[in-house]
Design a protein that fits this description.
Strand order of the largest sheet: 1-2
Strand content: under 5%
Shape: globular
Largest sheet: 2 strands, antiparallel
Order of helices and strands: EEEHHHHHHHHHHHHEH
Length: about 300
């Protein structure tokens, strides 16, 4: 599988040269068809996922110590600080103790909002391991705040810490720092909460945002062309392709499926005659493009 992309980031423009870098080569399965066919189905091994909550970490081990450190760190991050840019974008008032974060999460950063998605994923995994009620309460509070933000933004499904104009810049090939990349982090975080902890609200928010993305892509294709759309994807969009396919699996919604197929670089599934090769600049970009259609 061959992929190529230009440099991403705040200084991206459509005229930047593309680069190809071999990242991995997928080889055929080493076992013969004859050996596989001669093994009774009941004796064939297969990998199956199991819930993290089924694992118990014994006190005094280094793994349990690491889990406790993770919990301590996640609890040290104040939810109102994580939500500062989200509430600001939604026009909501800030709690008295809320403070804006710095760096990539600062209110002036075009990449703001992505850490909250990472936090949702990490907090969900942490709760599955520790069953700590404080981290569960934090997750519930963040979900409630995100629901308020989505409603304040019009209830269309759009949910972000940055304005919709960032997506308009993507569609018009105006430099902007990876809004779809940040959107993927939120969708994955919401999906992780739903799959690891449960509850309908994170899935509801994720599916509404997936349908919003589908509507934007359909509108762009109506106004321009598929070639123009592929050009807009010549930048980081993270694992959006992968997570949209996963959302489609949950409820078999055609909107999520159609959106995920369009969040695929035009040459991402071009199979070379000599074998399968995956080429790109960043593994957090190219792997999800491959994994999405395989989900």
């Amino acid at each position: 599988i061959t992929m190529s992309c230009a440099k991403a980031g705040p200084h991206w423009n459509k005229n930047l040269p593309k680069f190809d870098t071999t990242a991995v080569e997928l080889s055929p399965y080493p076992f013969s068809d004859a050996a596989e066919s001669s093994t009774p189905p009941s004796r064939r091994r297969r990998l199956e996922a199991f819930p993290q909550s089924s694992i118990t970490l014994h006190n005094g081990t280094h793994i349990a110590s690491a889990a406790a450190t993770n919990l301590k760190y996640l609890l040290s991050i104040q939810p109102d600080d994580l939500l500062y840019a989200w509430r600001r974008n939604a026009g909501l008032s800030q709690p008295a103790n809320a403070r804006p974060l710095r760096g990539w999460e600062s209110p002036g950063s075009e990449l703001r909002g992505h850490v909250l998605g990472h936090w949702l994923s990490a907090a969900s995994l942490c709760y599955a391991s520790t069953r700590n009620p404080r981290i569960k309460a934090r997750i519930d509070g963040v979900l409630a705040a995100l629901s308020e933000c989505e409603a304040s933004l019009g209830g269309t499904g759009w949910l972000a810490a940055f304005p919709e104009s960032f997506l308009e810049r993507v569609e018009n090939l105006i430099p902007v720092w990876a809004p779809y990349y940040t959107t993927h982090k939120l969708l994955q975080g919401l999906l992780d909460v739903h799959e690891i902890i449960g509850g309908s609200e994170p899935l509801r928010l994720a599916l509404k945002l997936a349908r919003y993305i589908q509507r934007r892509i359909s509108s762009l294709l109506t106004k321009t062309s598929i070639e123009h759309h592929w050009t807009t994807l010549n930048k980081e969009f993270g694992g959006l392709n992968d997570v949209l396919w996963k959302l489609h699996q949950h409820q078999q919604r055609s909107a999520a499926a159609a959106g995920s197929s369009k969040m695929q670089a035009d040459d991402a599934l071009a199979v070379a005659p000599a074998g399968l090769q995956l080429r790109a600049l960043a593994s957090h970009f190219d792997r999800p493009c491959l994994l999405g259609p395989l989900a």
